Amino acid sequence: MPIFATADEAAQAAANLFVEAAREAIEARGRFTVALSGGSTPRKMHALLASSPLIDQVRWSEVYVFFGDERYVDPTDPQSNELMARETLLSLVPIPAENIYAPYHPGGPDIAAKLYEETLRRFFTEEPPVLDLIYLGMGPDGHTASLFPGEPGVYELERLVIDARAPVNASERITMTPPLLNAARRVVFLVTGADKAPAVHRCIEAPENFDETPSQAIARYAQVTWLLDKAASADLKITDGL
Ligand code: 6PG
Does residue 145 have its Cβ closer than 6 Å to ligand 1? Predict the structure, then answer.
């Protein structure tokens, strides 16, 4: 993929990719399974998917939405990734409510993680489950989903979903793990902004160190597509072949 001049162009590419992946998956398997990422970067992509022309190019009744990670907060909390996705996309497109699988459960982050894993294992036939497309962002510290530097989650080899901790507000998290993330048919890293440039460089070009840059555990082992703007790619030595 090229490096995009702006975050808007990267978001457009991410939205176009959603439409194309959905068409291919539905044609091949009768459904499209996608995991959305949280934070703020996906908002632009969501807005494009929720408006013409793209909204009319997706068979939303065959789309099944999951979440790569979630803050352990009530889904009405402004920090909730589920709330952000509903407000910016899912409430604006004709996707059936039963096609949306969100991780939150009031029993606590450990119970929520265990139940979400059970949901995924019931929904998919493969071991580990194979989603068609997983969107991931990246923090300036090199985290992705809710796999944070210095935390054990990046080394998880058995569980598909775990409760995790973040060194920021909304510190209790639920996150998909590398075994699940790396099994996807395609993982898209949508990363924009100058503050991400050092992490993008470490993720792609620095020696492997999952403690320091957990996103390496996905970026170097999954079927990855990078959607970067110029600012986020500024520290990369090589951008050909991304
Ligand atoms: C979350 C996300 C997280 C996010 C990065 C980037 O729950 O916050 O899933 O992994 O993708 O922190 O966040 P921004 O897009 O807000 O920079």
Answer: yes
To test the pocket of ligand 1, the residue of 66, 69, 82, 104 to mutate (highest count of ligand atoms within 8 Å of its CB) is 69
DSSP the chain: -PPBSSHHHHHHHHHHHHHHHHHHHHHHHS-EEEEE--SSTHHHHHHHHTSTTGGGGS-GGGEEEEESEEESS-TTSTT-HHHHHIIIIITTS---GGGB-----TT-HHHHHHHHHHHHHHH--SSS---SEEEE---TTS-BTTB-TT-GGGG--S-SEEEEE-SSSS-EEEEE-HHHHTTSS-EEEEE-SGGGHHHHHHHHHSPP-TTT-TTHHHHTTS-EEEEEBTTTTTT-S--TT-
pLDDT in tens, 170-182: 899 999 999 999 9
Q: How many angstroms does the Cα of residue 111 sit away from the middle of ligand 1?
A: 23
pLDDT at 48: 98
Residue 193: what are its φ and ψ, rounded to 5°? Answer: 105, 140
Distance 129 CA to ligand 1 centre (A): 23
pTM metric for this prediction: 0.98
The mean pLDDT value for 185-213 works out to 98
**What is the distance in A from the centroid of ligand 1 to the CA of 39?**
4
Contact 133, 32 (CB under 8 A): yes
For 210, phi then psi, to 5°, come to -70, -25
